[in-house]
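cron nightly-structures :: item 1 of 1
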Amino acid sequence: MSQLKLFDDLELDIGSNIGNTKELLKSLKKVGKIENLNNSESVIGNITYSIFIELLSHKITAVRLEAVKHLGKFNNEEVGKSILNHYSKEQDSLVRRECISSLGRQRNSQRIPFFIKELGDRDPKIVLQSIRSLLIFKDRPEVMNALKEMTNHPNEMIKEVLEIELSPRLKRTKINHIQVNEKLKNTVVNGDVLKVLPIIEEESFHLTFTSPPYYNARDYSSYSSYKEYLDFLREVFKETHRLTKYGRFLIVNTSPIIIPRVSRKHSSRRYPIPFDIHHFLMQDGWDFIDDIIWQKPEFSVKNRVGGFMQHRKPLGYKPNCTTEYIMVYRKKCKDLIDWNIKQYDPEIIEASKVTEDFETTNVWNIDPTFDKTHSAIFPESLCKKVIQYYSYKRDLVFDPFGGSGTFAKVAKEMERNFFLIELNPTYFERIIEKVGPKANYQTLNQFRQL
């Protein structure tokens, strides 16, 4: 079938379905599958785009959106004028954004004043698309001046896009990203985390996965105030940010914590640890990527709903807490994930692929694990998932609160190098027992002397 005949059939299909929105949208989506719909007026002529111009007046937003998308495939002055005319009347934000996008794809320098004018729109989607359209012409002084004037825009995404586009690219060498400091390989340090971290050189770790000590809720955690606790964690994660390689991940396992009441006259207190941590992580150079829910079976958690089961009185409801958060952050950078992946040799990329079943949602059903020494440990299956999904073989993975050493044990089994810090001597001995002799176990003073 010729390309001309294909357009004829589609135009008839669209025209016959104008009154049937569902079928019309199906027909419009077929257009996107046609190859070589590339501004070729000699082939397309006036046969096709007129039907899309007609659909700009359709009452259904989704139809107008599809029509504008397809009009952007034609480099035709009549089409451009039709889009501009429609843009001035359109109310829907997504359709307006698509109008800007379609005009931008035409790469017509006569539209530059229009795009500059739309930088002042109140809708960030319009502004971002106008920036994208102007970047085609960023070698022009009037365009660069207009973009530079936007660098103090209040919208965070607009500021970030402009920072990336207007700043010179940093040259990063392959070896600096994939290399591992030999003195950190498969090492566990028994010492204060805030004394150990400053000794380590920047950009050492590929992945950090940790569960911070819970605020005054376990036998290993005692702080004079919640503020002191949060300030301590902030310092740890600031240092972790310095030590994390460009664009790599920090994954934090936390949950709200209940501090029991002093007496019947007082209430217990629930502290929203993951939400308070999130606030300062975002301020300190981390990008939020995902919130994963660790779902535990109900029988494994403390019963809080028992009282309500008896009295059933509103206001007294307290559910059983069966979830924890696995919060995923990435060190803020100007490159996409592809940059990080491309630093590795093809053999390492292939060997590190996740070939078995993997989690397809952000709810992970994992049973908790119990240890003879430590009262709150990572399940091995949780460590395995995190290591598989967020690191490559031979990477250096880090836990600033080493606990019983489960993370190191799993990392070793998965051909990653590990570095752990643990203050408690009893837990440090448990790490030695669990991880085995093929690791470096050091005091703070020994580590300083390396």
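cron nightly-structures :: done
The CA atoms of residues 133 and 178 lie 36 Å apart.
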